[in-house]
Structure to design on (669 residues):
């Protein structure tokens, strides 16, 4: 068959194989239907082998298919992030290039302003005043002295999430702020716009948005944690907005720097010695203004550098800058200029914290496991937000575990599902514990929060476990195996010093009690039903092999016990074994009482039969069954219970003593 099959396979696999010619030749060469049937059987066998091999290959490579699909998905996400970063880098490089090219323009502009300073300033202020008269709620904007208009124009705002048009706006760029006004649908006189928002130039960063037709000519304003996207009329106007916004922000920084440098450090009145010791603040000693040098270039550019780091998601760089500043100011006196700098930096710290909090929010992608949160967690800890980092990390992992449990498909046998459920849950819990220990190694105060979280996660697991095992009314043997699997997986956590066995048992005790009681009721009902039909006859096992398998004495294939007693013993021992698999201290009395109730049903039936039976032979047979119960079954139950639990069962011993008169009954003689 193998040689013939190989020849047939090679023939069918040949590239020049012609089915019609092959069938024609086969019909001519065959002697009758029998040859055709045999050939058909060979082809069918070959087809079955091919299908089986194909199925094996699919199963063999199935995991590789899944892993490849996941890797492709991860790669797609990383490529998207890389594209976004490259786009931001390109916009930054373009801004730097434009800044270099506009140096000559700045010098010419300064010369013109030096020649006609008053006219230019007054003209810009008059223009801004006339424009703000068209804005409802914008009268107080001109209260700030020196504020004038730099640029303005119409824009269309888009939704950040779904990139759909939201509203048409008019933007007013001033030398120190940006005003956003929305168009009024019903104009009243000269009023065309309504005040929407006013942003200080230092409070936001401008990012170019790559054109992706039909979404084009857009730029983004980042006010962490929020952002807004605007679309210009064409690419030329978009370019003007980006250039002028960048130039205006730089001019404001330069102007503020010059203003601070020209400030007089101390008042002339304070130069004179004072006899009052309370005239001088302890935190601001004489000469403090001169002792703190804030004119260093990296300090002047620190707020802008922090904005850039946050915009580029360079969280480590931002925290490094903050550490550098804190180290520089650690031993310095607290002067008004230091307080002002601290105030600006604190705003950026809040922005950075909000971004890191968003990175850890459950709304973000949960791929990558606990390690994916390490970056944001470590930076929050460096910022002194270890408690918040711990809370967000545990919330993120709780959602991840819950999602993994929900995505687990309920199919096949219950025990197979429980194996998968335990593997997913306890593996995730173990990975989370190891990552937590790594991230919060120096914050021992957070460990109590992890223990509380672990108990909460265990409660989530038990809900899914009980729903599948106990609510679906599985047999006691299946439930016992499932609980055993859960206990074994729970023991794995002890390798990291986390023992949740007691928590698991306390959460399962109610369902296990109900299962034991339910199975106890089933055994009692079945025993009572068999007792009602009891004829007190020897049980016939049909074959001597069956008798040997039962491991009890008898003749040929007959057992010296009744069917009721044999069936009771089997059910009793099965219940005991499954109960011991489910056993833990809280279930001690429940299991004991169940065993006692089941034994009493059988003992009372035997006692009643002895008192009612008149036939001497049957009476002797009943005594024989009673002796078996008293001398064989009950001692085995006691010893097995003591072996499984670790302590004797006094209730079962008392029950055996109380049933001793059943064996020696005067009426049986």
């Amino acid at each position: 068959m193998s040689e013939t099959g190989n020849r047939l396979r090679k023939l069918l696999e040949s590239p020049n194989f012609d089915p019609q010619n092959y069938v024609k030749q086969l019909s001519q060469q065959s002697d009758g239907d029998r040859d055709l049937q045999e050939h058909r059987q060979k082809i069918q066998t070959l087809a079955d082998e091919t299908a089986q091999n194909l199925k094996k290959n699919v199963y063999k490579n199935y995991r590789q298919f899944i892993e490849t699909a996941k890797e492709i998905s991860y790669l797609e996400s990383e490529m998207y992030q890389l594209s976004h970063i490259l786009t931001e880098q390109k916009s930054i490089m373009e801004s730097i290039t434009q800044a270099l090219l506009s140096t000559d323009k700045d010098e010419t502009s300064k010369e013109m302003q030096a020649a006609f300073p008053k006219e230019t300033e007054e003209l810009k202020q008059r223009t801004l005043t006339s424009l703000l008269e068209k804005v409802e709620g914008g009268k107080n904007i001109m209260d700030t002295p020196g504020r004038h208009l730099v640029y303005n124009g119409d824009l269309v705002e888009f939704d950040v999430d779904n990139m759909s048009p939201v509203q048409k706006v008019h933007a007013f760029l001033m030398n120190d702020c940006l005003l956003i006004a929305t168009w009024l649908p019903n104009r009243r006189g000269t009023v065309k716009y309504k005040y929407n928002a006013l942003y200080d130039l230092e409070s936001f960063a401008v990012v170019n948005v790559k054109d992706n037709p039909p979404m084009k000519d857009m730029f983004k304003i980042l006010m962490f944690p929020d952002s807004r996207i605007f679309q210009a009329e064409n690419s030329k106007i978009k370019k003007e907005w980006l250039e002028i916004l960048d130039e205006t922000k730089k001019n404001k920084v330069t102007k503020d720097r010059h203003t601070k440098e020209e400030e007089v450090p101390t008042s002339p009145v304070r130069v004179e010695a004072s006899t009052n010791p309370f005239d001088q603040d302890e935190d601001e000693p004489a000469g403090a203004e001169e002792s703190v040098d804030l004119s260093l270039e990296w300090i002047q550019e620190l707020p802008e550098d922090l904005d850039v780091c946050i915009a580029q998601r360079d969280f480590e760089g931002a925290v490094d800058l903050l550490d550098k500043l804190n180290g520089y100011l650690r031993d310095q006196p607290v002067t008004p200029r230091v307080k002002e700098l601290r105030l600006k930096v604190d705003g950026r710290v809040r922005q950075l914290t909000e971004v890191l909090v968003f990175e850890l929010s459950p709304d973000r992608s949960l791929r990558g496991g606990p390690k994916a949160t390490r970056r944001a967690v470590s930076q929050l800890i460096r910022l002194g937000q270890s408690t918040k980092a711990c809370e967000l990390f545990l919330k993120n992992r709780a959602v991840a575990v819950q999602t993994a449990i929900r995505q687990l498909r309920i199919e096949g046998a219950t025990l197979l599902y429980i194996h998968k459920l335990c593997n997913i849950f306890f593996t995730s819990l173990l990975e989370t514990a190891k990552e937590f220990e790594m991230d919060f190694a120096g914050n021992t105060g957070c460990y109590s929060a992890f223990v509380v979280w672990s108990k909460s996660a265990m409660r989530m697991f038990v809900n899914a476990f009980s729903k599948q095992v106990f609510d679906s009314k599985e047999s006691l043997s299946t439930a016992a195996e499932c609980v055993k699997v859960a206990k074994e997986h729970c023991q794995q956590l002890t390798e990291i010093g986390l023992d949740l066995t007691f928590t698991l048992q306390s959460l399962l005790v109610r369902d296990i009690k109900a299962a034991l009681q339910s199975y106890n009721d089933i055994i009692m009902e079945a025993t009572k039903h068999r007792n009602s039909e009891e004829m007190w006859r020897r049980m016939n096992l049909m074959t001597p092999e069956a008798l040997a398998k039962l491991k009890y004495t008898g003749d040929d294939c007959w057992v010296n016990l009744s069917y009721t007693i044999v069936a009771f013993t089997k059910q009793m021992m099965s219940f005991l074994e499954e109960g011991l698999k489910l056993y833990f201290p809280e279930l001690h009395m429940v299991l004991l009482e169940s065993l006692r109730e089941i034994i009493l049903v059988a003992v009372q039936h035997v006692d009643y039969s002895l008192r009612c039976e008149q036939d001497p032979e049957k009476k002797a047979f009943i005594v024989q069954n009673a002796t078996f119960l008293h001398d064989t079954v009950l001692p085995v139950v006691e010893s097995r219970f003591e072996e499984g639990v670790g302590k004797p069962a006094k209730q079962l011993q008392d029950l055996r003593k109380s049933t001793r008169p059943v064996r020696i009954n005067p009426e049986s003689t």
Q: What stands out?
A: The radius of gyration is 43 Å. The chain is about 65% helix and 10% strand. The first helix runs from residue 2 to 13.
